[in-house]
Write a structure and sequence with these properties.
The complex is a heterodimer of chains A (682) and B (156).
Chain A (H helix, E strand, L loop, with lengths): L1 H29 L4 H21 L2 H18 L7 H22 L9 H11 L33 H12 L3 E9 L6 H15 E7 L2 H5 L6 E8 L3 H9 L4 E8 L13 H12 L8 H13 L8 H28 L2 H24 L1 E3 L1 H4 L2 H12 L3 E6 L4 E3 H22 L3 H6 L6 E10 L2 E8 L6 H10 L5 H6 L2 H7 L21 H10 L3 E7 L3 E9 L4 E9 L2 E6 L3 E8 L4 E3 L2 E6 L2 E7 H4 L11 E9 L2 E7 L1 E9 L13 E6 L5 E5 L1 H5 L1
Parallel strand pairs in A: 6-8, 13-22, 17-19
Antiparallel strand pairs in A: 1-3, 1-4, 2-3, 5-7, 8-9, 9-11, 10-11, 12-13, 12-20, 14-18, 15-16, 16-17, 18-19, 21-22
Helix pairs in contact in A: 1-2, 1-4, 2-3, 3-4, 3-5, 3-10, 4-5, 6-10, 12-13, 15-16, 16-21, 18-20
Chain B lengths: L7 E9 L2 E6 L3 E6 L13 E7 L2 E7 H5 L11 E7 L2 E7 L1 E9 L3 E2 L13 E7 L2 E6 L1 H5 L1 H11 L1
Parallel strand pairs in B: 2-11, 5-7
Antiparallel strand pairs in B: 1-2, 1-8, 3-6, 4-5, 6-7, 9-10, 10-11
Classes of the chains: A alpha+beta (682), B mainly beta (156).
InterPro entries (chain B): CheW (IPR039315), CheW-like_dom_sf (IPR036061), CheW-lke_dom (IPR002545)
GO cellular component, one term (chain B): cytosol
Protein name (chain B): Purine-binding chemotaxis protein CheW
Amino acid sequence: MEMNEYLDVFIEESKEHIQSLNDQILELEKDPTNIDIVNEIFRSAHTLKGMSATMGFQDLADLTHKLENVLDGVRNDKLTLNTEIIDVIFNAVDDLEAMVLDIIEGGEGKKDVSKLVNQLQAIENGDFKNDSSIEGQKTEQPEQKVTQATKSETQLDQFELTVLEQSKESGFNNYEITVELQESTLLKAARVYMVFEILEQVGEVIKSTPTVTELEDENFDYEFTVILVSKEDNDAIQQKIMKVSEIEKVTVLDFAIENQQTETSQETKKSSEEAAEQSSTAPAEKSNSDQNKESSKGQMASKTIRVNIDRLDALMNLFEELVIDRGRLEQISSSLRNNELQETVEHMTRISGDLQNIILNMRMVPIDQVFNRFPRMVRQLAKDLNKKIDLQVYGAETELDRTVIDEIGDPLVHLIRNALDHGIEMPEERVKKGKPEEGVLKLNAYHSGNHVFIEISDNGAGIDRDKVIEKAIKNNVITREQAASYSDQQVYQLIMESGFSTADQISDISGRGVGLDVVKNTIESLGGNITIQSTLNEGSMFSIQLPLTLSIISVMLTEVENEKYAIPLSSIIETAIVHKKDIMRAHNKQVIDFRGKVVPLVSLKNVFSVPGDREEDDYYSVVIIRQGDKMAGLIVDTFIGQQEVVLKSLGNYLSDIFAISGATILGDGQVALIVDTNALIK
Amino acid sequence: MADVTTDYIKSIVFQLNDEEYAMPVDLVGSIERMMHITRIPGAPSFVKGVLNLRGVVTPILDLRERFGFDEQEETDSTRTIIIHHNNMDVGLIVDAAYDVIDIPKEKIEPAPEVVGSVQIEYIDGVAKLDDRLLILLNIDKILANESITNLSEAKG
C-alpha cells in the first residue's frame, strides 16, 4: 500500500525524465559532440534507472541501464554518435515511455526489451551496424589489446582501461581475481552472487569473464575471473571470498596495465563508479560525492509541490462561490451605509481580488507541456515523408489555463501533420522552386490581451486557391457561382469545412478523412478561432486564437427588458448608439453602416423572444460583434457594464439551447445567460 | 426506480393542484423555497429557467405546466424540489412539499386508467394509505428524452 503513494510520484517523475530524455537527445542530434548534453541525458537516464529499480520495475531498469552504458560510452569518447545510434536510443526511450504508460494504467511495466537491449549492447561494444537482426552479442569486441600481467584471456576495452588507470592514480589497486567453485556446487549462480556481494563491499568490479549475464545463467563451468578495483590488500580479499561456501579456490593477482592510455575523463571518480555498475548486476552504491553532485543539481530547480488538478478545481469552485457572496456583501453594505461594514467589505474585496489572481495563475501551465512532444513527432514525420524539416519553437513559456492545454494538443498535432504533409514540399521540389532544401516549420505562441495566440507557419507550397475551389465544388461544399465571389480568406476557410481534403493522395500522416474541420470545431468549442494566411509557394500560417482561461471570462453585461445577457468581450468590437433614421434595410433585414461596412442588426429581444413591451425610443444600443470577418450588431436595451464572470454550463439537461453558450452567476445571486455570438452571426 | 431491497419506499409527498404525489426520497437532493429564476429563451414552456443553487446553475421545470394544469401564482408554500437523476440536477416546482412517509410496497397499485388529471404516462402507480391517495411519479418520464427532444426542436 505504501508503494502506491510513491507510485504517483514515480510516474510523474518518470514522465518528466522521459520528456527530458527526448528533448536532450534531439539537442544531441543537432550537436553530437556536446558533452554537456550527454551528461544531462545520462543524469536523467540514471535517475530513471534508480527510481524504477527501487519501484521494482525490472525491465524498465534494465533498459535504462543499457541506455546509460551507451551514453557513458559516448561521454567517454568511446563511441561516436550517428543517426542509427540515435534512432536506437529513441526507440529505447519510446519503449521506456510505453512501459511507464503501462504502469500508469495499472500494469507492471513489463515489455520485451531484449532486442533493444541487444542493440544497445552492440552499440556499447562498438560494433553496431544498423541491422535489426543483431542477436545479443555477448562477446566483447576488443578495441585495444591489453597485455595482462598474468592471464591473457581477459580483454579490456579502452574505456575500462581508462577507468583502471584512473583508479590506480587515485590510489586503488587493480586485481584480477579468479574464483573456482567446487564441482559439487548446485546453485552456481547463487554462489557467484554471494561472491559479487563481497566484491562490491571491498571495491568495484570492472569486468568479469564470463559476463555477468552468463554467470547469472550459470553459463560457465566452475571458474570465473573478475577485475576488481579495491583499496584492500590481496589476502584480505582472498579470505573474504573464501568465506562463501562451496568455493574451491581463489586466486587474487595484481592486474597491471601495460598499454598506457593517454585519454582522460573529466570525472575520474564518478566514471570509475559508474563503470563498475556497468558490469555488476546490482546497482553499486553511490558514493557520497556522487550523491552530492546529483542533489545539488536538484536543488537548482524551482521549489514546487505537486497538487492534484482536482484539488485546484475544487479550490476554484469554492472561490467562485466566494466571489458571488462578495458581490452580495457589497450590495448589502452599500444599502446599509455602515462605515465599518463598508471598510471590511472593501478590504475583503481587495483580498479576494488578489486571491483570484493567484488561483487563476495556479491553473496556468506553460504551453511547453504541449509543444515539447512536437520535436520528436516532427523528426519522425520528416523521416517518414523523406522531407527535411527545421522545427522552430518560440514562446514555449507562454502560459495557458490547464483546461485549454488539455484540449489544444490534438488540434495542434493535426495542424502540424497537415503542414508537414501538404505544406512543405519534397526536397527536390523545393530546390526546383529555388528554396532551401530544408523546410521551416515554425511554432509560435504569445499572449495578446486576454488571448493566447498560437501560430503554426511553414514556408512550403502555400494554399492553391484554384485547387481548393475545384475541390470544394467537386465535394459540393460550394457552388461555382459562390466560388467566384469568395475572398482568399474565405477560400482558405473552406479547407476547414467538413468533407474536405486537399491532398491528392491520402497519406498516413494526415488526410484520413477526418479533416481540419475537427480542428476548427475543437478550437471553436474552446471559445477560440482559427484563421489562415497563405501565399502560394511561399507558405501558410494557421493562427489560433484562444482565451486565456475557460472558467473566468470578461463579458459585457447588457439588459433586454428585465433580462440580463452577457456578451463575451472577446467577440465584441465596440458598442454604439445608433439613431433610428440611420438604420437601413437590405434584403428585408435591418442593417447599419458601421465605419464603411454594412453590418446586419440582430435584435436580442426578438431572438430570445423576451417578454415585455418597453417603448422603443429613437436610439438603439448596439453591440458590434465579430466572428472571423463577419460582423453583426446586437440590439439591446441598455449596457450595464464590463465584468469578469465565472462561466458555468447550463447542465446536462439543457445541453443544446440556441445562441446560449452558458450561464454565469451575478453578484446578486441571479443567473445571467451568456450569448453565443457565433450562432447569431451565422 | 424504487428501492427493491426493502418493503417500504421512503417517499417525499408533495402537492400539486390539490392532489398528493410522491417520489422516492433518495432522488431528492433538497427542497428549496422559490428563488429568482432566469428564463431560458427557446426552451420548452415547462422549463421555467435556471436558478443559482449554491453556485450550481440548475434548470427548473414547472410540473403544473408539464402536466398541463392551470397556471397558479406562487404562494408561500410553493417549493422547488431539487432532484438528482441520471447525472442531471433538475428542480421541480410544486405547490407544496411537506411530508416524508414510508409507502409499503404492497399498497402500490398500477395506475388506473383515469387518475386525477395527470397524463397516465408520467405515473408509476398509486398508493392508498388510510384515506390518502398518493400518486407515484415516474421521474424518468418527466425528464425523459421527449422533453429534451422538444428542447432541441425548440431551438430552431
